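sry for the spam today, last one i promise. struct tokens for design, 261 residues
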């Protein structure tokens, strides 16, 4: 894994956006896996600015999102379809017919999840998967204890995740208790993974993911087994890493090379 440590989340988000924009310019028909939540918002704003400035086009890009709450309509202001439209899709030149989010209202959940996986495979697989990381080390809605080879499925949210997401709802009781989520095995099939982590509350999770043992108790730790992962952090999130100075030096050198110097 490559680790990019920036002073602020804004700086880290800009660097992550540069890496994605560079990949899109190289492959205008690239397939992206996207994440929601507050963590990638600044990166999405950067990509929207780049698109408006003519630095990158998403006209032929296809995307699949990680997850969606069960029971929320796409028009609900806390649904992940609504989030993606508001934070990214409405601000870039992507064809929304080429953007995909799991249907949280599906009557046949198993069929919905199987169809989603098939769509991704039929599109050639995800080239870049964007992830955030939960304070307990979860990725997507794969909570601690999730199988490291799990596939897209219905999952129950832990009390910690419900508490973390309660700030987006009027009260904690309004947070859905279930979600549809790509599995860890599904995520690991992406050719490249970009993961973002900001703030001191993510420091333990980042250390567990980057330097801890590979374990279902920290789902993000499985990323150590992936051949192409880019971890973008601010200094607060990287604070507990034992070898952070080396990671930071090496990551910056590799990023410069990746972006063409």
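last one done:
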């Amino acid at each position: 894994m490559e680790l990019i440590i920036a002073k602020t989340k804004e700086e880290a988000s800009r660097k992550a956006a540069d890496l994605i924009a560079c990949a899109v310019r190289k492959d205008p028909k690239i397939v992206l896996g996207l994440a929601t939540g507050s963590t990638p918002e600044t990166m999405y704003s950067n990509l929207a600015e780049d698109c408006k400035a003519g630095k990158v086009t998403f006209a032929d890009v296809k995307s699949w999102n990680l997850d969606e709450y069960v029971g929320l309509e796409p028009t609900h202001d806390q649904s992940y379809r609504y989030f993606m439209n508001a934070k990214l899709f409405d601000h870039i030149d992507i064809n929304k017919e080429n953007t995909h989010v799991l249907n949280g209202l599906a009557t046949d959940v198993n069929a919905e999840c199987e169809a989603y996986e098939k769509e991704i495979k039929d599109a050639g697989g995800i080239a870049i998967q964007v992830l955030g990381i939960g304070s307990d080390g979860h990725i997507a809605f794969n909570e601690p204890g999730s199988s490291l080879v799990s596939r897209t499925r219905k999952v129950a949210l832990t009390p910690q995740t419900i508490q973390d997401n309660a700030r987006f709802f009027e009260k904690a009781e309004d947070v859905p208790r279930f979600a549809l989520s790509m599995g860890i095995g599904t995520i690991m099939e992406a050719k490249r993974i970009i993961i973002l982590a900001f703030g001191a509350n993510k420091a333990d999770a980042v250390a567990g993911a980057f330097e801890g043992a590979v374990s279902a108790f920290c789902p993000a730790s499985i990323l150590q087994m992936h051949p192409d992962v880019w971890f973008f952090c601010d200094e607060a999130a990287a604070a507990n890493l034992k070898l952070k100075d080396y990671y930071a030096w090496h990551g910056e050198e590799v990023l410069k090379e990746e972006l063409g110097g």
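DSSP finds eight helices and ten strands in the chain. ok im logging off now
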